[in-house]
């Protein structure tokens, strides 16, 4: 399962994280806190990811089991404006 955590800290909020969340909800056809019907994606909000000047920031995690999550590529993705997040999610969906 892919867990997508969108930062809603002050800087990211000012840089359109709410719009990025709306785009992710549309692309995944779920709301924040929900998991897709196929169990492949979960969308969550998170606090600051410490890359404030590069927001909005999104952490992509992969859950290997019910209690474990490790970062994909070991990094937070920055500047995830709605159109960039949409492209990233579509790519993940195609490769899942």
Helix and strand pattern: EHHEEEH
Strand order of the largest sheet: 2-1-3-4
Count structural domains. 1
- Kindly report the name of the CATH homologous superfamily: Glutaredoxin
CATH topology: Glutaredoxin
Quaternary state of this entry equals single chain
CATH class: Alpha Beta
Stretches with pLDDT under 50, minimum 5 residues: none
How many β-strand runs?
Answer: 4
**Which structural class best describes the helix and strand composition?**
alpha+beta
Please, could you describe this protein's structure?
With 96 residues, the protein is an alpha+beta fold. The chain has a single domain, classed as 3-Layer(aba) Sandwich (Glutaredoxin). 31% of the residues lie in helices and 31% in strands. It has 3 helices and 4 strands. It has a 4-stranded mixed beta sheet with strand order 2-1-3-4, covered by helices on one side. A hairpin with a 2-residue loop joins strand 3 (58-65) and strand 4 (68-77). Helix 2 runs parallel beside helix 3. The longest helix is centred in the last third of the chain and has 13 residues, at 82-94. It is globular, with a radius of gyration of 12 Å. The protein starts with a strand and ends with a helix. The model has no long low-confidence stretch (mean pLDDT 88).
